[in-house]
Amino acid sequence: MARNLTRQLALWSARVFAAHPDRTEPIYFALSGEHPVYQENAFLSSRRIFSNANVYSIHITTENRFLRERIHSMLQTHLLSVLPGNCALIQLVSFLPNQNRSVIPGFIVQDFQRKEETEIILKDMAKINECLLCSYKKSEGADLWQQSIWCATEGAEVKGSAHYIIPAAKPAAHVSVLNIDSVVFHCFEDAYAALQECKESIPEAKEILHLADQSPRHMQRSNFPVIVIEGLDATGKTTLTKSLQETLKGTLLRSPPPQLSHWRDQFDSQPAVIRRAFYALGNYITAAVIARESEKAPVIVDRYWPSTTAYAIATEVVGEKENLPSLYSKVYQWPTDLLKPDLVVVLMVSPEERIRRLQERGQVKTQEEKELEENNLFRERVDEVYKRIEGSICKIIDANCPKEEVLQQVLHLISQYCRL
Ligand SMILES: Nc1ncnc2c1ncn2[C@@H]1O[C@H](COP(=O)(O)OP(=O)(O)O)[C@@H](O)[C@H]1O
Ligand SMILES: Nc1ccn([C@H]2C[C@H](O)[C@@H](COP(=O)(O)OP(=O)(O)O)O2)c(=O)n1
């Protein structure tokens, strides 16, 4: 067991948020034997973390994804309040390069005053939460740090667990990409299993699971076309879907469906795996309604699987859109067990026009420059994912033009791609 865990801690990326709030770039270093690569810049970064302080790391190793995220956020709040002054808390992600689902979240604690009290607090906390705690010592006469693992359940150091820290090259895949499978579900069973992990703590999850159980599965669209409208908030989806409903004399649906919408606030505040599983199951429940309604009239759907996927990926991945999973990743592929529409139209507007529309609606009044900058990157990531899932059924249109022109563009696409 301990051997296995040691292997899991092979390569790290740390995001500093307490000691150096201006530093958000990940820094990488590896443990000896696993990835013996030396790089000057990375070496300086690990030096900055390990010199002049007693250093510990905490790793949340539970397999339950819901508990893992819960413990992580609870530990963060708790550590910030109980650690002695002069300690810094740094977010840490351990992972094996290029290995999906190898990500283990955690923290680095730097104690600049080298107090015994800090170690006692951390050992107690690791015991309660069944976390793994590591401490670091500088090797005699060498510019190297050595890691020892302390096992909470055994209350002792794990024998033979010592490793040296060595700087490592930046891995090919961004660490956030390795965790994507936790938030993008490729089939009904995956999303269902994720909600099951939390059903004892969140009673509403049982109700969603029950609704999903009752919903007919593997439904196909019927005689009439099914058109999905997608895009960021305020790109004009509500306006366009209403016009399409009137013009095509169709049925207007949205995902999540009305019977789930009153649970949205509750699930939006849950760890990402649970939040995304909620929306994913919402799509499967909507699919059954789409199938039924498309027997009677054209169906227009306001948001569906592309929203779930685009927001899940864009939230999980940080920074530039270059960090997104590669173009050919299976995360962009439509799940084979989910009803596929005839056409998906993605509305795209310029950031300026979108802000103008939000302001007209009375939103985004006073946002700090920095926050806006991060929003810009987020918007770019969402739009980029939409582009990457663009396939034979997914079409992107420029929706900066007046409402009537947007409608005409979409009607033209419908006449090209759907049997009316
Ligand atoms: N093509 C358009 N040109 C100008 N304003 C638009 C256009 N489409 C929608 N709007 C306005 O922009 C705002 C956001 O539109 P809405 O349809 O609610 O977007 P969404 O449903 O995507 O959030 C509304 O005030 C709407 O009247
Ligand atoms: N099928 C869906 C629908 C929405 N979502 C998520 C994605 C975002 O976090 C929000 C966006 O929904 P919201 O209702 O705010 O969007 P609009 O106001 O309709 O533009 O919901 C989803 O994941 N899957």
Automatic annotation (TrEMBL):
Coiled coil segments of this chain: none
GO MF annotations in UniProt: ATP binding; dTMP kinase activity; nucleoside diphosphate kinase activity
Keywords, comma-separated and alphabetical: ATP-binding, Coiled coil, Kinase, Mitochondrion, Nucleotide biosynthesis, Nucleotide-binding, Pyrimidine biosynthesis, Transferase, Transit peptide
EC numbers on record: 2.7.4.14, 2.7.4.9
Catalytic activity line of the entry: CMP + ATP = CDP + ADP; dTMP + ATP = dTDP + ADP; dCMP + ATP = dCDP + ADP
Sequence similarity: Belongs to the thymidylate kinase family.
Predominant cellular place of this UniProt entry's protein: mitochondrion
Organism of provenance: Erpetoichthys calabaricus (Rope fish)
Signal peptide positions on this chain: none
GO process annotations (BP): dTDP biosynthetic process; dTTP biosynthetic process; dUDP biosynthetic process
Cited HAMAP family: Thymidylate_kinase (MF_00165)
UniProt GO cellular component terms: mitochondrion
Catalytic class of the enzyme: transferase
Name by which UniProt lists this protein: UMP-CMP kinase 2, mitochondrial
Pfam family, one: Thymidylate_kin
Domain Thymidylate kinase-like: 229-409
Subcellular location: Mitochondrion
